[in-house]
Amino acid sequence: MTLPSLKDSIQQHGLDAKKALGQHFLLDPGLCARIAALGGDLTGRSVVEIGPGPGGLTRALINTPADRIDAVEIDERAWPLLDELAGYANGRLHIVRQDALTLDAASLGPAPRQIVANLPYNVATPLLIGWLRQAASWERMALMFQFEVAERICAAPGTSAYGRLAVLAQWCAQCSIALKIPPGAFSPPPKVHSAVAVIIPHAEQPEPSLFKAMERVTAAAFGQRRKMLRSSLKSIGGEKLLSQAEIEPTRRAETLSIAEFARLATLHHADR
Ligand code: SAM
């Protein structure tokens, strides 16, 4: 038995792209293989793919030495096609029929896992923040985002893209943009450029309550990013916190390094 081509498979199953589900499909096997390779050495690993859709990237993941691939798809129209694909994967491809936003980790292979995904852009940021909250469960992520979002994840202090997402992501992980992809690579093409970010969680991770403290600090600091920190951090004890952290109260959020945010989060955490 040979696997039908991706295009034939999409046609046979009548899977036209739905805008509401952020569906922009990758049909080029070469590009899918490059994205799968950004997942690093998958030998014996458990990989999660969010939103396999018609399975272009899933096919590339099946061709890696990964032990297990959990493909999490919300669109029931894609399930029969994915079930068919699973028939060619020697039991290594598991179709998880769930919303990735409320994904139950018990349905996945053993941690630490990798994530490789061409994410649905409408839920990409909440998905990433959810994974960062549990960063110890993940060994590496290779994730396609809208280009501006990838820039915000990897931004350096002092730049306009630097904000809450950069601090949360870079506090927990090493982040870099590995591949920029033009709209024409997708069917249908989105209006924006895309990029794959590689996110490698640090060996040491903050405990959940400290992560929550960092979420509060960054929400306050960047919620009013043009204001001085003594004013934007008022609701969480601004002046005292800044003096304990030895940070000038007249500075603005975008000038603070990740290490300075880490000091603020640790002190705010200890204060509660
Ligand atoms: N991986 C495919 C590819 O590269 O061609 C499709 C990528 S498409 C950008 C995003 C996929 O995520 C779609 O298949 C869509 O149905 C799925 N999706 C959207 N929201 C989802 C959610 N909340 N949970 C799981 N899958 C979702």
Automatic annotation (TrEMBL):
One GO molecular function term of this record is: 16S rRNA (adenine(1518)-N(6)/adenine(1519)-N(6))-dimethyltransferase activity
Gene3D superfamilies, per database record = Ribosomal RNA adenine dimethylase-like, domain 2 (1.10.8.100), Vaccinia Virus protein VP39 (3.40.50.150)
Judging by the UniProt lineage, the source's domain of life is Bacteria
Record keyword Transferase present: yes
Q: Name one GO cellular component term.
A: cytosol
Pfam families in UniProt:
RrnaAD
Coiled coil location? none
List residues binding S-adenosyl-L-methionine: 24, 26, 51, 73, 99, 118
Location(s), subcellular: Cytoplasm
What InterPro entries does the record point to? Answer: KsgA/Erm (IPR001737), rRNA_Ade_diMease-like_C (IPR023165), rRNA_Ade_Mease_Trfase_CS (IPR020596), rRNA_Ade_methylase_Trfase_N (IPR020598), rRNA_adenine_dimethylase (IPR011530), SAM-dependent_MTases_sf (IPR029063)
Principal cellular location given in the protein's record: cytoplasm
Query: Start and end of every Ribosomal RNA adenine methylase transferase N-terminal domain?
Result: 31-203
For the protein in the UniProt heading, the enzyme class is transferase
Its EC number(s): 2.1.1.182
What keywords is this UniProt entry annotated with? Cytoplasm, Methyltransferase, RNA-binding, rRNA processing, S-adenosyl-L-methionine, Transferase
Q: Which reaction does it catalyse?
A: adenosine(1518)/adenosine(1519) in 16S rRNA + 4 S-adenosyl-L-methionine = N(6)-dimethyladenosine(1518)/N(6)-dimethyladenosine(1519) in 16S rRNA + 4 S-adenosyl-L-homocysteine + 4 H(+)
Annotated NCBIfam families: ksgA (TIGR00755)
Hey, which family's this protein in?
Answer: Belongs to the class I-like SAM-binding methyltransferase superfamily. rRNA adenine N(6)-methyltransferase family. RsmA subfamily.
Q: What does this protein do?
A: Specifically dimethylates two adjacent adenosines (A1518 and A1519) in the loop of a conserved hairpin near the 3'-end of 16S rRNA in the 30S particle. May play a critical role in biogenesis of 30S subunits.
- Name of the molecule in the record: Ribosomal RNA small subunit methyltransferase A
Source organism: Neokomagataea tanensis
